[in-house]
Design a protein that fits this description.
single chain, alpha+beta, SRPK, nucleotide-binding, non-specific serine/threonine protein kinase, ATP-binding
């Protein structure tokens, strides 16, 4: 992990992406005002970051777009998106999948980076539902039904194309942003919030490593977003996607969203997306996940059993062993 004590401390140093991710094969150091693809895309704001990429708002000569920088020699997400495009009679957005506009590579101090340019998207479902939860509000019933239908249609399209998404979650589902796609920059920033930066400075006066950004940028907060009742859903981030029949051995899963077959079974397939979709629909209604997770698969499964009441017979022996092991772990010693 990067030693942050050598840098001038500020809020963004501790609340944004880790500096340790700026390394060979990691993030490309992007700054506001940078341009890509021979000046075509100019960076305006940061929208977010993940394990493999940072996401930036950029201005195109023709429209506002969202370059998603994926840092690897070859992009699994790009291959998956191209596969879905071949199975779409119209644009991917018509199937509630994020629309890919452009793809190119960019050479930087940390290596050759695959850059994907997507349609402008609004905030994630997680962000919007958290705001609803904090304010004590709930989504309208018609919005819940519409979001549910669109999510299931997106998953159905992915499955019909012979793929699985593998990582359906509130962070990987966002709202479209058609109302803001062609507005002036100042109008867009009224919704996103103005870009906030902090210069990255070493306390010892030494120059920054070439692989680090010159300043940290605060991700857009979408505080003035009010369009979830007018915009459609978009499923994004197909980095974990896989072809049916070529499932990976493991999936990167948030604990509370683990599908039971990835806990009990030696094999899973594209239908893990349906379990995750069920968790999302529950989230739409109740604004929280149906399960909590504290690094304990046994406690998670106990909640699942309480929710669905009975496991498939083939999984019952494994659950019995988990319960037995749990009892042995908490059995008091003699004399206690």
């Amino acid at each position: 992990m990067e030693d942050l004590s050598v840098y001038h401390h500020g809020n963004l140093l501790h609340t944004q992406e880790r500096l340790s991710s700026y390394r060979p094969g990691g993030y490309h150091p992007v700054c506001l005002g940078d341009t890509f693809k021979n000046g075509r895309y100019k960076i305006q704001h940061k929208l977010g970051w993940g394990g493999f990429s940072t996401v930036w708002l950029a201005n195109d000569r023709e429209c506002v777009a969202q370059p998603n920088h994926l840092f690897s020699q070859g992009s699994r997400e790009l291959r998956n998106l191209r596969h879905l495009e071949k199975h779409s009679g119209r644009s991917l957005s018509s199937k509630y999948i994020v629309q890919l506009f452009d793809a190119f590579t960019h050479q930087g101090p940390n290596g050759l980076h695959q850059c994907l340019v997507f349609e402008l998207l609004g905030p994630s479902v997680d962000k919007v539902l958290t705001d609803y939860y904090d304010s004590g509000d709930t989504l309208e019933t018609e919005d819940i039904l519409r979001m549910t239908e669109q999510l299931l249609e997106a998953i159905q399209f992915i499955h019909d194309a012979g793929m699985g998404h593998g990582d359906i979650s509130g962070g990987n589902i966002a709202f479209s942003c058609s109302n803001l796609s062609n507005v002036a920059e100042e109008d867009l920033f009224e919704v996103l919030g103005l870009p906030e930066t902090e210069e990255l400075v070493r306390l010892d006066g030494k120059p920054l490593d070439k692989g680090l950004p010159k300043h940290m940028v605060k991700a857009a907060e979408w505080d003035e977003w009010v369009d979830e009742d007018e915009e459609d859903l978009r499923v994004l981030d197909l980095e974990e996607g896989f072809l049916q029949g070529h499932e990976p051995k493991t999936l990167s899963q948030p604990g509370q969203l683990q599908a039971p077959e990835t806990i009990f079974g030696k094999y899973f397939d594209h239908r893990v997306d349906l379990w995750r979709a069920g968790c999302m629909i529950y989230l739409f209604v109740f604004r929280r996940s149906p399960f909590w997770y504290l690094d304990d698969d046994g406690a998670l499964v106990e909640q699942m059993v309480g929710f669905v009441e009975k496991l498939p017979e083939v999984w019952q022996p494994a659950w019995d062993r988990m319960q037995l092991n749990s009892k042995h772990q908490i059995q008091p010693m003699e004399g206690e």
